[in-house]
Design a protein that fits this description.
four-stranded mixed sheet; Translation Initiation Factor IF3; alpha+beta; single chain; 2 helices
């Protein structure tokens, strides 16, 4: 099994594309996938996680999360990081 994969959520890619990518990565052998979003994309990250859990069900769980803020281009922006674990 592969250890961990990181995916950054951006505004131009639909939620369903992320869901399919995450499922494909789990099928490739990744056990943990960390999703990261900043600013307006935090809501999209929540939608992605919810959709993945609805598709996979009990096979995936939230292994950890981190929330905070970062200074970017002179302004503070909220970020969210969620780690999903498959096959637990």
């Amino acid at each position: 099994m592969k250890a961990e994969r990181k995916i950054t959520i951006v505004k131009d890619i639909p939620v369903t594309d992320y869901v399919l990518e995450i499922i494909a990565e789990f099928n490739k052998g990744y056990r943990r996938i960390t999703l990261y979003a900043i600013g307006d994309n935090v809501c999209k990250l929540a939608n992605v996680v919810s959709s993945v859990k609805n598709r996979i069900g009990e096979g995936v769980r939230i292994a950890g999360w981190k929330i905070g803020s970062k200074r970017r281009m002179g302004e503070r922006h909220t970020f969210l990081e969620i780690t999903l674990e498959y096959g637990v």
